[in-house]
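Everyone, study these two lines:
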Amino acid sequence: MKDNFKIPVDIVSDDAHSLVILANEFLNYLIVERILADNTIKAYKSDLKKFIIFLNEKGMTDFNLCARENITKFCLREKNSGNSAASIARILVAIKMLFKFLVRDKYLKKNVAEIIESPRMWKTLPNVMSEKEVAALLASVNGNDPNSIRDKAILELMYATGLRISEVVNLKIDNVNMGIGFLKCVGKGGKERIDPIGRKALSAVNKYLTKSRPEIALSSGKLPPAELFITRFGRKFTRQGMWKLIKEYTRLVGVRKNITPHTLRHSFASHMIAHGANLRAVQEMLGHVDISTTQIYIHVDKARLKSIHKKFHPRG
């Protein structure tokens, strides 16, 4: 198992090491058998680390000693610490998956976490940019230097495909078929999908590949990595580095909204559905396993329609 996914054994007293060992076995199971995304595993690791510390504070050194009430009290403590309902729901999912794993592998006699209900969560509408804001953002990147050409290609591709920022960072040159205008993307859980690129994004990426990327690689003096987009130092982008780039451009064009790594992805989905795209098709392009995840963009469009009605109807 990758060391950065292990819970350090020195986070609690010696008598709680068995809890840490079993939790690390579970994390290894998520990596090897479930093939969950790195970010998901890191989140579960953080959640379980706090849970083990909580159990240790209560004098528990064996998961068999943990009762349903202990899990409920831990979740309540996290709520009182300011965690959102979404965060607590994720914590509870991690604990439930851990206990299910421990029962399956005969480490635990009874799954006391099985019947605990997740906290009720209001569906929050994703933060999206308007079509006018996106158009202004894309038009603002008009320089002819290598970095500007690259940045234009990044933004055009993200809006054209709805890729997650981690998917763009890890996108390989070989995964992009310029001839037919499609790309192969590896999403959450190692699942592959094929997404169309779109005419304007294809043009921007082609300009980057033929003019900008060779110049960046040459000036850096490094053999470029296999990834499509590289930094001015000739290295692969980090997720944080690309997010910072996007936030800077949105700031320059005066977008005041809270920009997240998913903002262009949310905008892609919302605008597609607003223009009549089939929900199933959008689900496939986004790589959502469950269509209920995609359905939230219908609510985004309804919210937009309601605001238009209120603004223009005489009795709105």
